[in-house]
Amino acid sequence: MTAAQGFCVFDTAIGPCGLAWGERGVVGVQLPEGDWEATRVRMRRRFPGAPETPPPASMQSVSLRVAALMSGRPDHLLDVELDMTGVSPFHQRVYSITRAIPPGRTLTYGEVADQLGEPGAARAVGQALGHNPFAPIVPCHRVLAARTGGGGFSAEGGVATKLRMLQIEKAQLGPEPGLFD
User: Which of 34, 97, 115, 144 is most buried, most CB within 10 Å of its CB?
Assistant: First the structure.
């Protein structure tokens, strides 16, 4: 992982999130850890030596867009530069497919594995997403265990947080009607 030049904590509809950046873009995003201080502590642990500082304009824009997404405004965030230094090639492929899932849509771990050309790699996909340092820019919450189940979620609050994020997006399960209509 690349060293972060700085990080900030910002408010969203689901709680305070963190954003760390470096020379080549976003180094990491942190979903809420419960409250502002817990999120700060987590950011300091993830990015030791990075100062908490007001973000540069480009990162301020990213934090505003993430906050808007968490409020229900669809945004693919595909143009946000992610610094994937130190991220394995397999994880990068999983994250690329996951980033292409539009807000309000979902895939299963198996469907992501199929798109990778590696049927049977659903468990490896789940492990890659469990280590996703860029949620929700890499929207791992949009990948489900099955069409009827959320599966795991490593963020604070677990599957309840995942389902809340999907509810905010008015998620649909594949071609079916909306999950939360």
Answer: 144
Using CA atoms, how far apart are residues 11 and 179, in angstroms rounded to an integer? 26
For 101-133, the pLDDT digits (tens) are: 988 888 899 999 999 999 899 999 999 998 999
Active-site residue 17, yes or no? no
Q: Rounded to two decimals, what is the model's pTM?
A: 0.85
pLDDT of residue 166: 74
CA-wise closest residue to 84 among 99, 102, 74, 70: 99
User: Which part of the chain has CATH 3.30.160.70?
Assistant: 6-70
Q: In the CATH hierarchy, which top-level class contains the domain 89-168?
A: mainly alpha
Catalytic residue among 8, 66, 140, 168: 140
